[in-house]
Amino acid sequence: MDRFAFLLKRPIQLIPVLLGISLITFVLIQLTPGDPVRIMLGPKASEDAIAFVRARYGLDQPILVQYFYFLLNAIRGDFGQSIIYRSPVGPVILDRMAPTLFLILYGLALSVAFTLGLAIAAARSRGRWVDQFVRLVCVSSVGIPSYFMGLMLILGLCLKLKLFPVSGYAPTLIDNLYHLFLPALTIAIGVTPILTRNLRATFLQQMDADYATAGRSKGLPERYIFGRHVFWNSLLPTVNLMGVVVSFLIGGTVVIENVFNIPGLGQALIRAVLTRDYFVVQAVTLVLACGIVITNFIVDVVTVVLDPRVKL
Amino acid sequence: MSALAAAPVPGRLAKLWSATPATLKVGGAIVLAWIVLAGAAPLLSSFNPIKVDVLNMLKPPGGTYWLGADALGRDVFTRILYGARADLMMAFFGVVGPIILGTLIGLVGGYLGGRIDMVLMRLFEITVSFPYFVLVIAIVAVLGPGLKSYFISLTLVNWVSYARLVRSEALVLRNADFVLAARSMGFGHLRTMLFHVLPNALVPPAVFVMTDAVLTIVLGSSLGFLGLGVQPPTPEWGAMIAEGTNYLTSAWWISVLPGLAICSLALGLSLVADGLARLLHTGS
Amino acid sequence: MEELVRVEDLAIEFATQFGTVPALKGVSFALHRGEALGIVGESGSGKTVACRAILKLIAANATVRSGRILVEGQDVLAIDAAALQHFRGEKAAMIFQNPSTHLDPIMPVWRQVAEAMVLHQGVGWGEAKARAIELLRDMQIADPARRAGAYPHELSGGMRQRVMIAAALACEPDLLIADEPTTALDVTVQAQILALLRRIRRERQLSLILVSHDLGVIAEMCDRVVVMKDGAVMETGTVDQILTAPRHDYTRRLIASQPSLMKPAARKSAELAAATPPRLAVEGLKVRFRSAQSLTGWLTRRPAHAVDAVNDVSFTLSRGGSVGIVGESGSGKSTIARSLIGLVAAQEGRILVDGKPVGRLLQERPPAEQRKMQMVFQDPFLSLNPAMTVAATLAEPLRQHKLCADRQIPERLAELMAKVELPANLLERRTTQLSGGQRQRVGIARALALEPEILIADEVTSALDVTIQAQILGLFERLRREMGLTLILISHDLAVVRYLCEQVAVLRQGKLVEYGPTEQVLTHPREDYTKALIAAIPRLSRRSDAAE
Amino acid sequence: ADSKILRMGYGSDVLTLDPIKTVYGSDIIIQGMMFARLLQANADRSEVGPGLAEKWDISEDGKTYTFYLRDAKFSDGSPITAEDVAFSYTRMRFQKDSAYAAPFQPLKEAKAKDAKTVVFTLDRRFTPFLTLTEIWNTGIVPKAAVEKMGDDAYAKAPVTSGPFKFVEWKPGDRVVLARNEHYYKEGLPHLDGLEFRYVADDNTRVSMLQAGEIDVCIGYPVARQPELKAAGFRADADISSVTYDMLINHSKAPFDNLKFRQAISHGIDRQAIADAVTLGSGRPATSIFSPELNFFDKSLPLIQRDVEKAKGLLADSGVADPSFELLVSAGIADDEKTAVLVQAQLAEIGITVTVSKIDSTSVWTRLIDGDYQAELNWWYNETRDPDNALRWCAWGAGDNKSYYTRYNNEEVNKLIDEAAGETDDAKRGALYAQIQKICVDEVAQVAMFHPNWLNGYSPKVKDLILNIGLQFSEIDQTDLV
Ligand SMILES: Nc1ncnc2c1ncn2[C@@H]1O[C@H](COP(=O)(O)OP(=O)(O)OP(=O)(O)O)[C@@H](O)[C@H]1O
Ligand SMILES: Nc1ncnc2c1ncn2[C@@H]1O[C@H](COP(=O)(O)OP(=O)(O)OP(=O)(O)O)[C@@H](O)[C@H]1O
Ligand SMILES: [Mg+2]
Ligand SMILES: [Mg+2]
């Protein structure tokens, strides 16, 4: 079908984006003061030792030459070495993808559940106290930093009530539903207000839409109109917003990973940036970029599936 | 049919007032209150917000220290008052750059379309996928830490939100009859874009900016470990929260109270946004 | 005859930011079983509010100040929610002006027809679907089994309106309320829908309330008429009585404004027109739209889909001359206008102004040339910048083209306002604070500000009340006579064209199927298509033939 | 019985398991538990005694050290020979990318005399050498395994000589060790294994300790001490050799001005800073290095804050614009607090301090490049011998230019060398006192206070302290009950 032609076009558009990101990242991080070799060897190492190791990693070459080699190797599937860990980039970041992915998906699942519950409750009782309460909570919770929220949850739910573990990522999926509940909850607390506001507004708008009135004029019950018409017509803006939120989450889980000590990509990225571990930064950036592109892609697919009018 | 325009000035103001949604009034009052408190801080407190006093470290709320003292014996109430200055500034300047840059890019891309839009959209995707930390570190390294770097790094990244909003409006507006009408009267693209498309594409960004302002404060404190945001000893709510986290179990007031201040500002700005949206959408 | 609906002293007001707006101020009327009642009145007179109240479709910000609505003796406004659900759909149903927005865009149409059956009559979805398809067939939708699975946007406007009627009739109500069911459709489709309504009314013994601002439609369809203005009933009576002996001034004005009843304006003789050199000549104009090729299309070497929106169109116009372009929706009328003005590029053909060819696109034309030819857009709600005041809207072209010194601008503005018969105190208003008719006149004033020699008016009156339409047609006529304006009038309403234009061009699928002096084309149409267009014009006098 | 696994949490990440390639706390701690050294310190590191070497001789001229090894095995069961010891030392001293060869400059050669005897040749008399043979980077590695695996592979899965053997390393997460069955001390260690986890956030680490997810929390915010103690955790400070100081760039104005430096030294209140930052658990600094080191000059007085004197010194200095930028690594709460205190105190004597928080790598880079005026930093010493400390912080002739301060006093340099060659404790003491006096008078760096290690231990953990040199030296004795 023609409406799904974009499925084929996307991968091609991806190439310039990934090239652009990798080039800018590479140049920027290399121009930033700080030398990974010095960090690897520590402040007590001699200049000789540093020069020796720099040459070993090819860091004595001009940046663009280095970038060229990076690209060449990347095409062959070799993303270079982590200078700080003195080992190939692959293993350093591969292990970290699962926790971050799980965390984001779990957080989103909770967010979606909360958002649907709150937005439906608010919209169905519009103007009354449930609605006002939901609005108030959504509006004022935007200002709570996630590290603060995370710490409060740990102090309250882990230490006081001993309901959840403080940290960690368990080896099995089911265990993680328990282990990662609090971090996912923290994500949800950050994301839900944004989504809920949007969804509630769309609900209210769609409840006034002409087709809803037409439904009423046919004698359809309010519940049915909401469930079969208004609900499905309201999802798209929120799905799109969710795409944006996920984009921000993908690079932004570092704070939550830190607070709950989850060995994820966000932590890996920030450490790599702080230690100027060039090739790890590069690889993580590309992984995250792919994540974002895939997210947008999924949003597009959902859009096309949800709305028969949309052509991309 | 009586002419709005011909009405005498007081009547007009009264009309404007009665046409202003209640949320806008309440929200505006909260924001205004913070502006006043920030401005009048020296009148409201006799403490110096940056004067350390080791003898009065961690004093709980009550007595001379209404809201307690922090880990360096500074009065929390005073620091919240003065902190409003930095935060209002961050909230304001943190969104000015992004909104200008984002609006322009979104406008040009959406209005002109075609190849320019293609290129801008790739730029958009690159920015969205680009790791923010790398940029912050680089900018702080070049320009030094502090608010200037903060504003610049925000501008370079946050424009995408506004570009997205404005572009989707501009995409529709560029084919709107009144825009075609402007073109058919021989107005150039620049004029059409600035005077006909732009003013009509501003509602979504104007609403979003209120949330964004709060998010910039929160971001500043979350990324304090990169040297972002105000530098010590300047009081700032986000930094106060961050400073207080170690004391959360022993001296909650250091971080919880500035947290409430941020929430109240968030509430105020959101109410303004709600009201603004209602006001602008009804189109009068 | 038994009385089905009785509205008694209904008063409804709306709470708005600017205070309360009384929409209905004590309206009373009655409908007998099997009867068709028409409601006419200018825009904003309360027609829709009154109709919706019968189904208790009352907006959240509305309060019923007084009155009762008795349907079969029961007060609709007093019944409870459960009873209301049964009343709606089973007793009475409604169809709306705009079929596009009143259908759920993301649900296949058969479901929207069937859902009322499932919920009211407890039919299973499978059976309901079969019945829905039958209903759609009954509504004369071709190939209903296949169309049933379509989404609203895949159907034409006329088909959508049929779907809505099918959905309204799904539970076989006694009463159908139709609120301007054809205003959004073009004339040929309008005629089909009206015929359909007549048929089902006959076959199903339906009682009908039909709202329209077109007296022609009412005359064709209804037995009795209610005339409304400003939330009050002006008069009520049988159609004949109202049309032949209106008691109220307002009703008389309404009747006089029907374009089919307006006397054709004075015309230049054909000889005179031929003698003067043509101001505008269009030669072999061709506009082709190519849809963007998809990757799959490109891979399979499938040629991009192309539409010839305008195909080899030629006509000429002398100074002060006027041509009307008519045709069904999508026939290419607007595209001709846009390519003349340079908003879309014509692939072939030439446009000559005073004998000299002009550029295909706006940017290829020097400003002075751009100024010469102006266009008034179809929709007054879309064609004015909502962020500007009237004064700014009108002053901007003056300033940009330096048509007068800055200090003379106020004077010019006043002149322009006077020309389109708008009070000068509207200048400071935002365009959004004007009524539709006022806006359309501002749009015209804006075009006139540039002192154009050629004016293209694209369906400028179709969104307006007949009374305002009459005013605007009068204005064009005056400008043409007094200023020698050359006019291209685009319309799907032949009555309008007949009133104003010397020549008429009939367009079908981008081709000129007929072109000549108006009288000749209207009285002796050569093409069946033209005949159909003429036949579709609702006329006050045609009530008798409609009845059989 | 349940296996006894000790779980430790630490705030920085393990980067390598090869002892010669690092100077980082995380690596040092874990490597200390994996590799045995020739000599071994006692728990508080006050003495060194036999380790892999049962006994040792020092030649008359102090240039030849002979160590006699005991029977011992690596974790793979192969014997630890003199060849391995010579290999380990040669590698540490001469391999190009050895990270901490500096203290071993006098070592010229390490040679196996026979299977159990190893001989070190020094180019001069160098008294501190003996204590250096117990620091982490002299851990003995198996020559055969290193050569077979290559450095990089070895660093990821080393064969060990200490109480624990390597099991697993997940970079950025944890290192897992298990009891080394071949450990040379019969019946030790008591523990079956050990997990060394990277927990970046201080508060999270404390919470994990409280929730029982770790048994040892290395480093906690001092504000949480009362809470930990109240909950029954062992949370008293472990004594450290840390000096917390303000590094000042002697090659840059205004710190090239002696009077200005002195004005600062007299303008700050060390006691108040120590109290405010460590909440009383640390001591104000009187000398350039920690009182825990040998030959610390106890007679040096605490410089009391004297605003008038400081103002006078400032006036005398003739510095026209008394202001400077103080660099702080962003995200370290104590540094920020100290900076604000210094800023406030110096403001009173008329010096304007601008605090700049930047990321730690940028700080290091500017420090090393000399592109800074002042910076807050801390350092610790591996042993109790001050030679190492002074070569780090006041030896202008060294690679690190007196901890990047560019302080370079020929006399001090000479005295440091002289003291290192002296064997008589009384004479060494006198030399070190002289050096300390000069460094304090000239304000080589602004030493401010000596904090201690703040570690929390679950009550189950028996016999474990972190000693002054950042080592759990008695980990083989540690038990979980
Ligand atoms: N929800 C509402 N809120 C406020 N005012 C309303 C609302 N609905 C209708 N009105 C007002 O009530 C009056 C009557 O409106 P109504 O829609 O019945 O007019 P109408 O006769 O159907 O006009 P048209 O021919 O334009 O459809 C108008 O002045 C309108 O502005
Ligand atoms: N930009 C475009 N791209 C592709 N096709 C177009 C475009 N604009 C118009 N068309 C097609 O050209 C044909 C003529 O359209 P046009 O708008 O001129 O019709 P019209 O006669 O003005 O109809 P209406 O009475 O509905 O206004 C239609 O089939 C339309 O779908
Ligand atoms: Mg209506
Ligand atoms: Mg058209």
From TrEMBL, chain A:
A biological process from GO: transmembrane transport
Annotated membrane topology: Multi-pass membrane protein
Gene3D superfamilies: MetI-like (1.10.3720.10)
Residue span(s) of domain ABC transmembrane type-1: 97-299
Keyword rRNA-binding included in the entry's annotation: no
Primary location: membrane
Gene Ontology annotations for the cellular component aspect, listed alphabetically: plasma membrane
Pfam families in the record: BPD_transp_1, BPD_transp_1_N
Superkingdom to which the source organism belongs: Bacteria
Keywords: Cell membrane, Membrane, Transmembrane, Transmembrane helix, Transport
Signal sequence coordinates: none
TM segment ranges: 12-31, 101-121, 133-157, 177-196, 230-256, 279-306
Location in or out of the cell: Cell membrane
Assigned protein family: Belongs to the binding-protein-dependent transport system permease family.
Name recorded for this polypeptide: Peptide ABC transporter permease
Automatic annotation (TrEMBL), chain B:
GO cellular component: plasma membrane
Location of this chain's protein in the cell: Cell membrane
This protein's UniProt keywords: Cell membrane, Membrane, Peptide transport, Protein transport, Transmembrane, Transmembrane helix, Transport
UniProt xrefs under Pfam families: BPD_transp_1 (PF00528)
Membrane as UniProt keyword: yes
SUPFAM superfamilies: MetI-like
Domain of life of the organism encoding this protein: Bacteria
Protein name, per record: Peptide ABC transporter permease
Lineage start: Bacteria, Pseudomonadati, Pseudomonadota, Alphaproteobacteria, Rhodospirillales
TrEMBL record, chain C:
Entry-linked SMART domains: AAA (SM00382)
GO cellular component terms listed in the entry, alphabetical order: plasma membrane
Highest taxon listed in the record's lineage: Bacteria
Chief place where the protein resides: membrane
Cellular location(s): Cell inner membrane
Molecular function, one GO term: ATP binding
GO terms (BP aspect): peptide transport; transmembrane transport
Pfam families per record: ABC_tran, oligo_HPY
Keywords, comma-separated and alphabetical: ATP-binding, Cell membrane, Membrane, Nucleotide-binding, Transport
Protein's membrane topology: Peripheral membrane protein
PROSITE patterns recorded: ABC_TRANSPORTER_1 (PS00211), ABC_TRANSPORTER_2 (PS50893)
Residue ranges constituting the ABC transporter domain according to the UniProt record: 5-255, 287-534
Family, as annotated: Belongs to the ABC transporter superfamily.
Name of protein: ABC transporter ATP-binding protein
Taxonomic classification: Bacteria, Pseudomonadati, Pseudomonadota, Alphaproteobacteria, Rhodospirillales
